[in-house]
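dumping this here so i dont lose it again. seq + smiles for zinc ion
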Amino acid sequence: MSGAGAADVLVCGVGITPFGRSEATGLDLAAQAVRTALADAGVPWPRVRAAFGGSDAAGNADTLVTRLGLTGIPFVNVRNGCATGGSALVSAVNAIRSGAADVALAVGFDKHPRGAFDPRPADWGLDEAYGAEGLMVTTQFFAMKIQRYMHDHGITARTLALVAEKAYANGARSPHAWRREPLDADAILASGMVNDPLTRYMFCSPGQGAVALVLCARSVARELPAADPVALRAAVVRSRRFGSFEVFSPWAPGGIPTSVSADAAGAAFEEAGIGPDDIDVCQLQDTESGAEVMHLAECGFCEHGEQERLIAAGATAIGGALPVNTDGGCIANGEPIGASGLRQVHEIVQQLRGRAGDHQVPGGPRTGFTHVYGAPGVSACTVLTR
Amino acid sequence: MSGAGAADVLVCGVGITPFGRSEATGLDLAAQAVRTALADAGVPWPRVRAAFGGSDAAGNADTLVTRLGLTGIPFVNVRNGCATGGSALVSAVNAIRSGAADVALAVGFDKHPRGAFDPRPADWGLDEAYGAEGLMVTTQFFAMKIQRYMHDHGITARTLALVAEKAYANGARSPHAWRREPLDADAILASGMVNDPLTRYMFCSPGQGAVALVLCARSVARELPAADPVALRAAVVRSRRFGSFEVFSPWAPGGIPTSVSADAAGAAFEEAGIGPDDIDVCQLQDTESGAEVMHLAECGFCEHGEQERLIAAGATAIGGALPVNTDGGCIANGEPIGASGLRQVHEIVQQLRGRAGDHQVPGGPRTGFTHVYGAPGVSACTVLTR
Amino acid sequence: MEGALTAVSAPALRGSRCPRCEVAVYPADPACPNCGGPAAPVRLSGTGTLWTWTVQRYAPKSPPYETPEDGFRPFVVGYVELPEGLRILAVLDGVRPEGVRIGMRVTLAAGAGVPHARPAGVTV
Amino acid sequence: MEGALTAVSAPALRGSRCPRCEVAVYPADPACPNCGGPAAPVRLSGTGTLWTWTVQRYAPKSPPYETPEDGFRPFVVGYVELPEGLRILAVLDGVRPEGVRIGMRVTLAAGAGVPHARPAGVTV
Ligand SMILES: [Zn+2]
Ligand SMILES: [Zn+2]
């Protein structure tokens, strides 16, 4: 809640799998990511005192104990859609700060079939007609949200294309990315309208992947000679307040919509004791191009409407003033729901360590921020510092 | 981990629904239990800072925010089979002890169709033949575990029947119980063999129900005039170590099986700083009669084999030296997986408050213990004191 | 036919409204989603303005989508803001994508399925 | 036919064994579940003792159970402890429930489905 003790949790090890498609199961990927993270931290599995993890559609994380070793560890499965990774991370942080564990694991993974995410009206409390008449389409919601935002704040379609262009450019430089071919803004604009104003190549796709983080109390981190730790200064999850605009809503309240992303980001900055102006590199939920544009302002990195100028000027590129989604984000990596939020943390850790390779932000970034947003109005944010 | 701060988490409010069958959905039941718990604590919903909950088969707990109010609360869904309630509780305790929240909710609920729990061989990593030839039957496992235990420790079938007789007697005195008709040991023995040595009325059934707990830091509890708090001295979840004997295993290691229940109970007692001899009333996982017999010893309340004498002497009855499953346990309440573990905590809280009504343990019990065990080798235990 | 007249003759959407915080909701909900208090049924206005929109350019996945017998055709969908202070998700008929503008006046009516809207002043 | 001879002629179960911690496993697993190290394939003994048992008195739910064409009949199931130090889940044929005893010697063989055991010294 307060900043007290906030610097006491360190990310000592990170592990990620390739996010492109393969024959591996989600649990195979998860085990691989955990082993990589343990090796990165120099921590053997039996030293881990608590584990938290989950997937949306690829099985229960706690079954990993049969692969990692039956050490008796408490392993809590979490399942919060896009905030699954964030929930695992917050739970792991709480376990360390409470004294319940001095070494904790957070793992997120998923593997979705092509064109996944079949919503059923009843699961959302909706009349069957919403499905039958074609209104249960997530891409429609994203399109309608950015459509209004463009109208209110003077954002153009070219800016949306530039966001995707940057994503593919960064993906081409990231070994774990799924989409590794650069694509220019004109090709993105010409890729076929899906839901106006969003075209095909402005969207991410359901995918696969796994990410694991080994978190330690500072006292333990000191004793790990091989570790290259980064401080996790804040990890926050929030759910929507009344007045937000969400997917699959037959109605929405009037006025300016509330933003769970703004709430979560604000809480994370308060916990960390620093603000958006202090951040050197960030990862923002980019389910599609419009989301990245809106989340830049919702998370406090610019005023509404400023994105039009900032993005055109390259401010969000790897060499810019505020590099965003430096590993290509969801657009280039796909979105395995359970893994996506921890992929962002992985990327920030590697950036702050100076180990991001071809997509390293120059100048030695020392602070980073991550943000996920998902249905039905959940957001998870972190602040990390070197 | 240590006892430091262990007394700082108080259960200030509890809520339970009837465990018998009704038309209500699992989420209806969950909302009802939460409202009851909030009223019991005298805490309004917006005052709750973090929530943890789950069900095995009745939906995502976080969707409760649409019924309880869109306050922006972080609401983590947990899903750990029989340890779902325990995982929610441990996570809530960590949130309080870490300082992330000073008021936290734990909620567990479920609603299973009649004769639920259809296992699929592939989900358990088993060849299809195990299903096709009839070896994927959970009751077989329970029968084989107690069969060996009876052989090793001189437990008789009559003792198994006496455990169930007590469960129905206690259920008859518990308003929320599902089975409220007393049944004597002879009727239980004659109720038809299911898997030798276990007869029909020695088993619990899949059911429905919800339980919610409002947990507070001590500083908050002081300011709640209406609350009647009980200290949660320990809440522990453990997974199996190598060598345990578990359901759906094509093989098991030799030697004396390890016990995750013994591990979790031992850790809970260590955290609480008291031992089994100090406990006045306890709730033990009783998926069937044999489980209660074995868990008495595994959790440290007697030596292996002593149960034969203790149970015949009425030691585990409400008026006995160590009352066990005073609300009728799983046998009389059924087993809605996500709710079962928190039902035990609810029962201990009411016992320590002296508010258990017709099934109140006489003499003012001041210490209580709860224990759940479930597939595939998970156990959650708590220690509560007045 | 004139828009206001259409609104009178077409079946109104039935929502609910909280007397305490004045939040109106569609479809009707006995509990106010803002304060949790009891809400009363209300007939919603039949005319409003288009708050946002998009075009469904591809056939949604079936199920849940039921492809019409004569095949899929792109359609416009949007949120219509009503004077009661809420926005209603509706299919927008009677206008081509090029003609859709945020802020345009539309009429909104209940029918067999989801709400349907059309530009005010445009008859069938 | 004598038990030991049966064990020789019946197909042996194929498991694996960890050279480091000597844990034997069935079915074979390339990784040792105890230490995580590599395990080598091993042919398991065909004779052991019954560690525990029960009777499946009712027809399991279908699916996954496939009811035999001539209908369900109760059967005995148990764990057979082998000299390699592991216990194998098997259907126990050739004995009535009244005749089953913990500790009895049984032979164990692989077949098309799950392992099947029968009292040692009893022929088909
Ligand atoms: Zn209201
Ligand atoms: Zn080994």
